[in-house]
Amino acid sequence: MIVRDGWGENPYPEWDHANAVKLAKTPVADELMAKYPNVLIHTSGEDVGLPAGVMGNSEVGHQNIGAGRIVDQEVMRITRAIRDESFFSNEVLLESIEHVKKTGGTLHLLGLMSDGRVHSDLDHAIAIVELVRRSGLDSEKFAVHAITDGRDTSPTGGKAYVEKIEAAMKEKGVGHIATVIGRFYAMDRDLRWERVEATYDMMTK
């Protein structure tokens, strides 16, 4: 088996002038296509276990090829659980809420608030808001710590996502925004402690 990363088929002739594969001389590929049976497959969205509209990547592609079937990624497994309502009977989530009820504490939701669907899906956060509503937890005992994106989504789109989760909480009558910070700080991956420290201090002081 030979895997060629980045080699694809564009079904839109109007883009042939910008299609590197079409513009290149590919005698070996041309011969293989003419000589052997072949078929096109979708490599994005739910066809490879990702949300609709999300393009595939090397890891996802190899998982599906190796398994010989559609392998739902974590983000899609959560989405399917929300669709079939099993999300709302998840024992671990319900136990967390019950613990908060018994101890009189606050349930904290910390996460990336965006629909970039690389590290997060805003619909999942909204589903947690619905779960809290169904649980009957005191509305003041649910705090959301929003991390804005700006990398997998527009650098200026954070406000809109925070407003969406805030609107969901208002509609369902539970929770409040406790903190907001960008992923540049909260999700630093360059070993810059001063960035993570700003996030930590914001939540603990």
Would you write up a description of this structure?
The structure is a single chain. The chain is built from 9 helices and 3 strands; from the N terminus they run αααααβαβαβαα. It has helices at residues 20-23, 27-35, 58-67, 74-83, 91-103, 122-135, 158-172, 183-186, 193-204, and strands at residues 107-112, 142-148, 176-182. Helices cover 44% and strands 10% of the residues. By secondary structure, it is mainly alpha-helical. The model has no long low-confidence stretch (mean pLDDT 94). Helix 6 packs parallel to helix 7. The chain folds into 2 domains: 13-67, no CATH class; 85-204, 2,3-Bisphosphoglycerate-independent phosphoglycerate mutase, substrate-binding domain (3-Layer(aba) Sandwich). The protein has a 3-stranded parallel sheet with strand order 1-2-3, with helices on both faces. Helix 7 links the parallel strand 2 and strand 3 (176-182). The longest helix is centred in the C-terminal third of the chain and has 15 residues, at 158-172.
Question: What's the number of helices?
Answer: 9
By CATH, the architecture of the largest domain is named 3-Layer(aba) Sandwich
Instruction: Give helix and strand order, one letter per element, not per position.
Output: HHHHHEHEHEHH
Instruction: Report the count of strand segments.
Output: 3
Strand line-up in the sheet with most strands: 1-2-3
The CATH homologous superfamily of the largest domain is called BPG-independent phosphoglycerate mutase, domain B
The outline comes out as elongated
Poorly predicted segments = none
Approximately how much beta-strand content do the residues carry?
Answer: 5-15%
Helix content percent band: 40-55%
Alpha carbon gyration radius: 22 Å
Sheet with the most strands, sense and barrel status: 3 strands, parallel
Judged by helices, strands and strand pairing, the structural class is mainly alpha
Number of domains: 2
Oligomerization status of the protein chains = single chain
CATH topology of the largest domain, what is it called? Answer: 2,3-Bisphosphoglycerate-independent phosphoglycerate mutase, substrate-binding domain
